[in-house]
Specification:
Blueprint (H helix, E strand, L loop, with lengths): L2 H7 L1 H4 L7 H10 L5 H8 L4 H7 L20 H21 L2 H9 L17 H15 L5
Length: 144
């Protein structure tokens, strides 16, 4: 679980070895990723750190988003959300052949998503699930 996300972010972001079991994943989530992981993730998603923080629901406009970090670590909820987003980016890159093409698709309004860009749906687990389902349909040739 989240294997590709760990690889994309770099194992040093996890601070533990890459989890080998579901219980290891829960340990990583509870420990939280380092807050500096936001910089790497923003770079991978070709977005600003401020936009990434907004997608994670960390209220960047309030000026208090940093208080949501515990000892400069993301909460379990934000860690899981970020890893799910990275998995979407991985799936998109696998389907489209490269990360740049996946990012183009994620940022382009699409009829399948009601005319909005898939990137705008990454702010919820349901949105991530819908995008993941669509990428899986595309990968299996189900375009209609």
């Amino acid at each position: 679980m989240f294997k590709h996300a760990y690889e994309m972010l770099g194992e040093e972001s996890v601070t533990l070895k890459t989890p080998q079991s579901s219980l290891d994943v829960i340990e990583v989530l509870r420990s939280g990723l380092p807050a500096t992981t936001l910089d790497s993730a923003a770079m991978l998603l070709c977005t600003s750190k401020r936009q990434l923080i907004a997608l994670l629901g960390m209220e960047p406009g309030s000026g208090h988003w940093h208080s949501k970090l515990l000892d400069d670590r993301l909460s379990a909820k934000h860690t899981e959300h970020l890893l799910m987003m990275m998995e979407v980016l991985y799936l998109g890159g696998r389907y489209f052949g490269e990360r740049a093409a996946a990012l183009d698709w994620l940022n382009k309004p699409t009829p399948v998503f009601g005319g909005v860009a898939p990137m705008s749906l990454l702010d919820t687990a349901t949105g991530i699930s819908i995008i993941t389902d669509e990428l899986n349909r595309l990968a299996h040739g189900m375009t209609a």
